[in-house]
């Protein structure tokens, strides 16, 4: 059966065996591991995962035709779920310590990532993520303070995750070839991280700061806090700095102060 990739689903199938081998190497799969692959596509990565004989292997594939092909090809070796990964409930995997593999659709990759970050006990849900992003998005995820790519996504992603960039990947590694490079990242959920009551508050604060990233931080601080000068003194913040000059940890501290004032 000839498969025509669907633009509406952001389908770009990985065909590069060297990259597949590198993904598997970074997964470090043992026979005790439970695997979740999101967007399995034609099964190029699925083949290599099965060879590692994981304890349990579940695949989420939104495309009905591809889901059926995967079921027919692998039988009871995998559990195929034909569903949208943005609507799928992960409740039954709450304490599974999954290894999650995914070549994420570029158009919704950040939404998928943020949805995972919001899972309450992330380190119990997932042992490690091995994910492919559009390079531009990956650059924002791994960006450090004082760089042009540093922003809301960097702060939110690194709140609960230890993130490592593995490699940039050329468009020729996919079929059809996308117009941009991709990047492979590994993400390991942290056991210890700043306690925040509601991640929406962190999203709110970073939105206020980075909506005017060229402006000095005095303006967003003054908008968020009546006693902004006391807070800036407490955190040793120079009010002349810009949002991209502020460390991630400082944003988490600001969020906790904000939460203590609104509750």
Comma- or semicolon-separated keywords:
single chain, 263 residues, alpha/beta, Rossmann fold, Helicase, Ruva Protein, domain 3, 9 strands, disordered N terminus
Summarize this entry quickly.
The chain has 263 residues and is of the alpha/beta class. The protein is 38% helix and 19% strand. It has eleven helices and nine strands.
Can you offer a commentary on this structure?
By secondary structure, the chain is α/β, with parallel strands linked by helices. The chain has two domains: 7-189, Vaccinia Virus protein VP39 (Rossmann fold, 3-Layer(aba) Sandwich), CATH 3.40.50; 199-262, Orthogonal Bundle (Helicase, Ruva Protein, domain 3), CATH 1.10.8.100. The protein contains eleven helices and nine strands. The longest helix is centred in the last third of the chain and has 15 residues, at 248-262.
